[in-house]
Known about the structure:
Chain A is mainly alpha-helical.
Amino acid sequence: TRTLEITPxxxxxxxxxxxxxxxxxxxxxxxxxxxxxxPLEWKTNLDPSAFESGYIVSETTVKSEEVDKDGxxxxxxxxxxxxxxxxxxxxxxxxxAKDRKSCNKNPGLDYNTVKEDTSTVNILDKITKxxxxxxxxxxxxxxxxxxxxxxxxxxxxxxxxxxICLNPTTVKNHIELLKHFSGKGEQTVLESIDYTSDYEFxxxxxxxxxxxxxxxxxxxxxxPHDVETLCVTCSTEGVFLNEDEGEINYERKSEIYKDLVxxxxxxxxxxxxxxxxxxxxxxxxxxxxxxxxxxKEEADALPKxxxxxxxxxxxxxxxxxxxxxxxxxxxxxxxxKATVDFKKNTQEKKHGGRLGRSGPPVSPGRAQLVRKSAExxxxxxxxxxxxxxxxxEPPDRRQEANADLPSEYWQIQKLVKYLKGxxxxxxxxxxxxxxDFNLAQETCQLAIRDVGGLEVLINLLDTDxxxxxxxxxxxxxxxxxxxxxxxxxxxLGGLPVMVNILDSPHKSLKCLAAETIANxxxxxxxRRAVRHHxxxxxxxxxxxxxxxxxxxxxxxxYDARDVEVARCGALALWSCSKSNANxxxxxxxxxxxxxxxxxxxxxxxxxxxxxxxxxxxxxxxxYRAAIKAERIIENLVxxxxxxxxxxxxxxxxxxxxxxEDKETRDLxxxxxxxxxxxxLLNNTDNKERLAAVTGAIWKCSISKENATKFREYEAIxxxxxxxxxxxxxxxxxxxxxxxxxxxxxxxxxxxRKCGGLQPLVNLLVGINQTLLVNVTKAVGACAVEPExxxxxDRLDGVRLLWxxxxxxxxxxKASAAWALCPCIQNAKDAGEMVRCFVGGLEFIVNLLKSDNxxxxxxxxxxxxxxxxxxxxxxxxTDLGVVPLLSKLANTNNDKLRRHLAxxxxxxxxxxxxxxxxxxxxxxxxxxxxxKSNDANVxxxxxxxxxxxxxxxDNCITIHxxxxxxxxxxxxxxxxxxxxx
Amino acid sequence: MSKPNPFLSLEFSILxxxxxxxxxxxxxxxxxxxxxxxxKSEVECLIRLFHSLVERANVRLNNFGLxxxxxxxxxxxxxxxxxxxxxxxxFFAFDKDNDNCINAxxxxxGLSVFLRGTFEEKLKFCFEVYYLNGDGYISQEEIFDMxxxxxxxxxxxxxxxxxxxxxxxxxxxxxxxxNDGKISFADFEKxxxxxxxxxxxxGPCLPEAKVECQQLKLVKGTF
Lengths: 980, 223
């Protein structure tokens, strides 16, 4: 007999049985004496001392005084085994146990009673067959048991019908709802909640099929606010905890709860805060009207409008639609708009983060920003959720059973049959034969999966047969190029097995396993699985192989194999390093010095994955520091000169990532890396490499010395040539590089002479935000030159810049406003030009209501320039610039302070604006700016205060607030500027 | 058959490859055995072992070698082989002079391939194990014989037979480069060089990798 699980239902049944048995001796004293043919046996932890009268008690045994015909005791306890041969004794035992509450509480005892139930029924059979004088009593016992049975059945039926059965849709809704209320901060109920598996089967379940038969629907990782992440199973029976340390372990570790929220309330009650009343309400609503479908038109119209306003946000998936519907349904009040906005923001940020990774982003400051926001999202969504690059689920295409199947299908099916039913020899032959199929072809890949070959192949990895493992891995390695197969391999639990193989002493096995992991770990869940099973440490250990044997020149064969192992390890790490948590794991496993060492080798196919890994990891600050410390830049530069395009690309990518840092940029120059970069620009066929190279040039040219060098290498001309007919990833970098280079006078002239202004201005009409940020910067840099400015003006560039102020993305807005400053400064008839834009002044003044500091600072700077023209100053004064500027005065941001002070001092020049600033209380905060550490702020503030002090009231305010407190040196500064 | 004898394993482990593999084997001075890849001390040890095995197996028979049963027992207990038919074939491959008995020379020579053999030697050895009738080819019937037990009994004997026949076809298609319906040494060599998995294509006849590994550990522990 198997032990039954403790479920609420079973417990109730147990109680009923216990009650029945307990009362049996009183209700049916006659029948209670009836002796069973076979005793009931089980283990108990009842202490012999618990038995009193009627029993013969020794230290470890207890016999009942009541005996059967043959003198055998009806109850015999020999700790911990107990045998009972009559219902009366059983009844008595339970009563005894009840007195000793501790024992009764013990489910162990109760359990076994359940087992008895089944065995009693067995006894029934025997009873009926016997023709005994006692048969009458037997019959009665039988009848009573049958009655009990019937009663129990009815009872449990009632219970079952009461139980709420969860189904995939409700679970999904619940999770979505919880997701909605998750995030950082006090206002949320949870920090995060996420499925362990991205793959959703057609029935809505996410659990692997063999778990679905147990009724399990999906597994959820939940991060409550102040406890460790919990792994929770949602099954049709309810919700329960299933893990210990971050691993899915299908064993049940907690009681079953009705639904997720009940689970949370019980399990992490304190943390799952009650204060969020709103949530509770939504929850109720959700449960009361689970069938309510949102009105279709509304739901559709909403995302459409949304889509129109920011085109590239929503293209991605329907989930978003679902979310919006959700939001709509849950918050029919005014709130929903805010939520959508928030969502939009995160989406945009995500989008930015994605670009930042794949195609290099924006200006240096901006790039950091992107990275930061990506990190922030990552924090919010836990682990590596921001890496959604290649994570879109491919549609699961199964070959139709009735469709015309290719002949390979049947042949493969036959081979799989031999795999299943053959011994080692047959298996090897079948594997070998399977390898002869064109495994790169999707038909074959899917055929293997559809006939159940994947399971067999993965099972083979668990055997001891090296040859079978090798054969199986060789096939898995090939077919795992298919994204669907990858997912299936992960779903079937292939990764842990492969990770274990990494420990094998067989080098070829290790290689194959690592290569397969490299193929499989192309998506987030797989990468996480590799990490969770300790794969990163093992992969890093593979890198060590080459190091130990590389020293003396041993047998070349041996050496080559070690190098191969290291290569495969690096390949797998490259795939894994796309997850941020894995990057950290690689670092902790001591991967960086090993990678640095491998970088010194000359094997090209080794260098590519090594540099690739470094390049991926260089997005992390501490990697960049380590790369600098390990003197990796030198080798990167060296490999730029290699013949291999992929290697060049990875090296350029790595330089791109690392060159955020000034010292690194200098190192690149010192090691002679700029020249190869410049010469690589001439080959434009390989767009990926071109993007990487231009990215590296961009980042390097942030240093002035480098920009000069690039001019010497004639890179500027080439860059200008690349401004047309290139994909966006390349354009972003090219424009970025030009923007940096144009900070130098010679380069600006060069760009103009090469005819770079026209294509640059043309790019101002794009939609790619990263590109726009860079283009505006480059145009702004060029506009510093009056001669260039003329051309820009003629090309209508200023108007285009101005219209970019309307771009929804704050970075674009700010960048456009910055670019406008030199334009207005250097335009011939700037005042007239500005006035020409209908509604332009009003718009820019209204931008002062923005809440983005960078936008504010840039708009202040633009206003400073606009206000140089008296007529315009009058216009913006009428538009209410004074109160808006005054409102901004209370800020700690030095950049904003500086430009705000400049704007204020400019605006003082009109009418009674000076007085107005005083009235709007802008003066007192300005005085406090003098405590800032930034000299630019001091200068601008001094100027502004000088302007303001021409009004007597303001003078008083200045003295009241600052003059006494400000130090002597600041006063000197103040006076000095006042004079000037 | 007897259980694996730990003493025996230990003796063998001294001779096992990986750690010594790439140290230059010093040329042997012993005239008779100079062509082996073993060191002199190892050969001596092997011969000692041989005599002790012979003594244990053939007390009654006044024999100077190991007969088939004794040899099979060793294959089973030390090298983890299980297939009777293949063990017979290994025996015949060891028994160069076809006297149904393995003498000391054959023993050392065979083991040198078994444990230290180069890839080419192993290739040749496997081929010898697989072709029986001495014509230098592995015929279709022989393959069938060797694969006879490779599929678990399916629903009917016919079906199993068909499956095996198919496996034979597959291997022939794979390995019979000259399309003469049988596998010559050249065929075999070519196929195995293309994919080493095919070395023991018709059944295990070399010491298992697992055994090697275990004994490698043992060696590492001992030295």
